[in-house]
Amino acid sequence: MHTRTKKSPSPVRWRVAVVELHDDLPRRRPDLANLRVSLTVKDPSRIADHRDDLAPKRTFVDRRSASKARETIITRLKDRGYTVNGDLTVYRVYVIEVDSAKAPNHRGYLYVGQTSLEREVRVEQHRVGHRDDEKSKHSRVAHRLFVRRRPEMEPKRVYFSREEAMRAESRLRRRLEARGYRVEGGTERLDMI
Fold it and tell me: Is the pTM of this model over 0.85?
């Protein structure tokens, strides 16, 4: 007697798909593609405009590990300057002059910070003493002793990750201190510089 055995379906394999979007939307860096990063169970190489060069080759047996890999890929691509899933976030470093009477033995007194907001908006938050849900969103020194923003002292470039911006903020603090200023802020990555 001949018995038939059912062939068990092959397990689902999750993949991370990186697709280049062809649009006229703003980009974090105009020279880099706008990308969509998502999960799929299909072979992504069959998807139009799939970027094999940016996507992992590996497949995943469960959605959780695939999602983790997707988040890692998104972070790496954003750190390189790509616009991913519509996120246009960039970071900038800003400088606020505070009352130099509180730093009599220095060339001046400054506060440095980094933000993903427009610099003018962030400086205004310091000036007015902005609070969000009863949590302070300003530096006490920058609020109490505020004089003005110092755009001529700010780096012109934008940073694509918060980490990169914090390091730039700490480097700027060190440079300003070397020029004789007393500086507040910029301490999160000071030990790495």
Answer: no
